[in-house]
Write a structure and sequence with these properties.
Blueprint: E1 6-17, E2 20-31, E3 35-40, H1 46-54, E4 61-66, E5 69-71, H2 76-81, E6 84-87, H3 99-103, H4 118-131, H5 147-160, E7 165-169, H6 177-192, E8 197-201, H7 205-211, E9 214-219, E10 222-228, H8 234-241, E11 260-268, E12 275-280, E13 284-288, H9 295-302, E14 310-315, E15 318-319, H10 325-330, E16 333-336, H11 340-343, H12 351-356, H13 370-384, H14 400-412, E17 420-424, H15 432-447, E18 453-458, H16 461-467, E19 470-475, E20 478-483, H17 489-496, H18 503-510
Parallel strand pairs: 3-8, 3-9, 6-7, 7-8, 13-18, 13-19, 16-17, 17-18
Antiparallel strand pairs: 1-2, 1-4, 4-5, 9-10, 11-12, 11-14, 14-15, 19-20
Helix pairs in contact: 4-5, 5-6
The protein binds adenosine-5'-triphosphate.
Residues 17, 20, 22, 40, 42-48, 387-388, 397-402, 429, 431 line the site of adenosine-5'-triphosphate (ATP).
Pfam families: ABC_tran
Family: Belongs to the ABC transporter superfamily.
InterPro entries: AAA+_ATPase, ABC_carbohydrate_import_ATPase, ABC_transporter-like_ATP-bd, ABC_transporter-like_CS, P-loop_NTPase
Length: 512
């Protein structure tokens, strides 16, 4: 491993939005050849800090020092020129173009007569793919690749520019277990063999212990500490991110009711089924499966967001036949979707409007009880540790994890008679302390009134085991096993394993 040298330094970096100070004098150094995990609770300021590095956010004061030269902030192009590259959760690839066209997108190699020099681009792409040990053809179309391979293309695109600093923002959210392992190995290689300074942002602490060389905790816009990975244990990190979170334990034994709340008989969606399952009153069912197993298709169909299901779905005494989200909600079925930003959040509406949105149709505008709305908002914000707990903040100004809490709050606020609550990846992007809190709230949701149940889908085995009363394992759209959460994580993983699937086939089959 090359000797650690400061590659990029942040000096007294500050960022305010109006009166709100989000970064409060951050001093931090990222070193060549090192993976630096940047951690913190939702709203601690991680994305804002990354935005300052990538040129998306202009710091209010302070500087970013690259090779001894101090910058007061970057335009995005300047950040690239300074050797800073960022890979977002949502890939920025052109799916219908080849791998090498994507690697050179926006920075094409031209012949003397200004034509695209595909031959050179192809050769250079092969070279980069080889350097990072990725076995993909430069000619493959991006849309034909698996999600993990697509992420590899994103990384190849960054590596081609020979970055000094590579930032990965929650990079494993969309990946299956094997793809996560491959990514972590690649991240280590980039730092240790190619000498890149890597900044790794995540809420998944297992990954931190696996991949980081140093760890920084950001709390309320300031560095709490930076330590060598070998000098910390997970408990130190949890306590630093969310003080007191370690004392939140699973609340006593849950007593299963024998009464049936919902039942699926020969339930078949475009991709899943036939599915036969009874859900008991008060029960939390976890649907666990790999990427492409059909989890999202199943939940969205039950919630009326995808049409065309067959078979029988009973809730209480009623046979449901809904074909829209509104009809499903009227029957007592609600969904918190996984991609909250594009599917549920209204960025320009206020927090309170976002919370109340699904409930407005039941209340005439004239008869709205504004005082009650504010009371409900304050109570929900407190329960969910929403940050900031302010009703007037725009939806788009919340950090990722806080936006998720707001979406959950819609259904946990007790404003409507939801009986079957569906959640797709309920704590993706949510910090470790808030995650435990959300589990508590979901349990309370099923316990505080009879006739309620939760079905959540997750790709995280720890989440399935921590939250579910029973776990339904989905493989290629088929319900293969229903198990108790007392099984070992390794067992759960092996039950959900499938042969490598062709993702393109799956995409075609799952199209409505
Ligand atoms: N455009 C904005 N206007 C006002 N406040 C903002 C804006 N963008 C971010 N904030 C506030 O800055 C704080 C830090 O947000 P940031 O997104 O950096 O947090 P984070 O650590 O990345 O959180 P998460 O883990 O949830 O992604 C939050 O309180 C957020 O509400």
């Amino acid at each position: 491993m090359p000797a650690s040298t400061a590659s990029i330094e942040l000096v007294r970096l500050r960022k305010s939005y109006g009166p709100v100070e989000v970064l409060r004098g951050v001093d931090l150094e990222f070193r060549a050849g090192e993976v630096h995990a940047l951690l913190g609770a939702n709203g601690a300021g991680k994305s804002t800090l990354l935005g300052c590095l990538s040129g998306a956010v202009r710091p209010t004061s302070g500087s970013i020092v690259v090779d001894g030269q101090a910058f007061q902030g970057f335009a995005p192009r300047e950040a690239l020129d300074a050797g800073i590259s960022i890979i977002y959760q949502h890939f920025q690839l052109a799916p219908t173009l080849s791998v090498s066209d994507n690697v050179f997108l926006g920075d094409e190699i031209r012949t003397q007569s200004s034509l695209l020099d595909r031959r050179k681009q192809r050769a250079a792409t092969s070279d980069v793919l080889q350097r990072i040990n990725l076995n993909i053809s430069p000619d493959a179309l991006v849309e034909d690749l698996s999600v993990g391979e697509q992420q590899g293309v994103e990384i190849a695109r960054s590596v081609r520019r020979e970055p000094r600093l590579l930032i990965l923002d929650e990079p494993t959210a969309a990946l299956g277990k094997h793809e996560v392992e491959a990514l972590l190995a690649l991240v280590r290689r980039l730092a240790h063999d190619l000498g890149v300074a890597v900044v790794y942002v995540t809420h998944l602490l297992g990954e931190v212990m696996d991949v980081a060389d140093r760890v920084t905790i950001l709390r309320e816009g300031q560095v709490l500490w930076t330590r060598e990975r070998n000098d910390v244990v997970i408990a130190d990190i949890v306590e630093a991110i969310s003080p007191g979170a370690l004392s939140v334990h699973r609340s006593g034994e849950r007593s299963a009711s024998s009464a049936r709340l919902a039942s699926f008989e020969g339930f078949r969606t475009a991709f899943c089924g036939p599915l036969d399952l009874d859900v008991r009153e008060g029960e939390i069912i976890g649907v666990y499966g790999m990427l492409g197993s059909g989890r999202t298709d199943l939940l969205e169909t039950i919630a009326g967001a995808r049409s065309g299901w067959e078979g029988k779905l009973r809730l209480g005494e009623a046979d449901l036949d809904h074909g829209s989200v509104a009809q499903a909600m009227a029957a007592g079925v609600a969904l918190v979707a996984s991609d909250r930003i594009s599917q549920s959040l209204f960025p320009s509406l206020t927090a309170i409007e976002n919370l109340m949105m699904p409930h407005y149709p039941q209340v005439s505008r004239l008869w709205r009880n504004v005082r009650k709305e504010h009371r409900v908002f304050a109570e929900t914000a407190r329960k969910l540790h929403l940050n900031p707990p302010s009703p007037e903040t725009a939806g788009g100004a919340f950090s990722g994890g806080n936006a998720q809490k707001l979406m959950l709050g819609r259904w946990l606020a007790g404003l409507s008679d939801v009986r079957l609550l569906l959640l797709d990846e309920p704590t993706q992007g949510v910090d470790i302390g808030s995650r435990a809190k959300i589990y508590e709230l979901l349990r309370a949701f099923t316990e505080e009134r009879p006739g309620r149940a939760v079905i959540f889908a997750t790709s995280d085995p720890e989440e399935a085991l921590a939250l579910a009363d029973r776990i339904a394992i989905l493989i290629n759209g088929q319900l293969e096993h229903v198990v108790e959460p007392t099984i070992e994580e390794a067992q759960l993983l092996s039950l959900a394993q499938t042969i490598e699937v062709d993702h393109r086939q799956l995409a075609l089959r799952s199209a409505p």
